[in-house]
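Box 4.2: Ligand-aware structure prediction
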Amino acid sequence: MRAHAADRTAVTGVPFVDLTAMSQELAVELDAAWLRVREQSSFIGGSLVENFENDWAAYCGRKHAVGVANGTDALELTLRGLGIGAGDEVVVPANTFIATAEAVVSAGATPRLADVDAGTLLLTTETIEAAITPRTAAIIVVELFGNVPRMNEIVEFARARGLALLEDAAQAQGATWGGIRIGSFGVAASFSFYPGKNLGAFGDAGAVVTDDDDLAARIRSLADHGRAADSKHLHPIAGRNSRLDALQAAVLSVKLPRLDGWNDRRRTAMETYRRHLDARSIRMVKLEPWSRSAHHLNVVRINDRDAIREALKDVGIETGIHYPVACHEQEPYRRYAREPLPNVELAAQEILSLPMFPHISDEQVRYVCERLNELVEVHDAASA
Ligand SMILES: *Cc1c(COP(=O)(O)O)cnc(C)c1O
């Protein structure tokens, strides 16, 4: 009890994410990395980009990693590299960051927005099945919040139907399913290294990983103006500029060795949340038994979410909502949902993302739990 009282006076607010401590932990190494970039004067491509690509491929257990400008391009260029475009449908969960559906549209294909499991909020073979048509060419599985769906079933389903399986692993760097790192389950996986992701650059960055030599070469070419591998001045395909730059690669190389440790710290914070949150009225998103989440976000579900979120703000606790408006309710994407999506729609009303970052302290997590428990209790009593 005494310890609690002390904690209450120590913590007066909790940010949603605090990236400063990560940068401070690595200040000396980051300064050295910048110096290397400056001295090499090789700002686009070059050995720093190659080094990171090699390390990232190895980390994901794949043959190739192709660095690109951001996670959205990683998805779009993968689809283009696979020849998926006009006339093709791609199954995408409706409760993802808009970029997943957006990339499908940018590739010229049609997203087909699917419902998700009520407990995990992830795609299942049943919800994918409901969105399949004769035009379906691919499925994009999203490891939302860092959580991993039943990969064995989905891989088998895609194989049986002859559909390309892609992972949008932007939120799940380092997560595993059955002990195997995500990023290695489909034909290719895309990653975002947006600063707030588990492995974040100091700006925009992304990558695709794959074992397919031809696909890797096509994506590399598409991201570099459609350039031929052996000629600076020949452009056999119409590409674009979507390259990973040396500065971002250097930052990512410094951070990569810390990723697993940082994910462990997220897991510890998650355990504290699980122990202290009042499970009767604060429901945590379910995890699949064989999965090991990267815990990018800690999403809980509560009644009267918006009022409680405001009240948390008043006691200094920042929260997020991922995402309050589902993809099929965004104007340009309305026409891409054919089936009812009850689980996505209900979740959008109830979900609340609590503070989660590697350096969040035990006291901060317990402060969030205590305040949230109190607020929910008062609210439940008032509405009873
Ligand atoms: C962040 C994110 C993206 C997009 O990545 P950018 O690097 O911002 O383009 C795509 N999908 C999901 C699920 C994401 O969280």
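In the box above, the bound molecule is pyridoxal-5'-phosphate. The CA atoms of residues 34 and 213 lie 31 Å apart.
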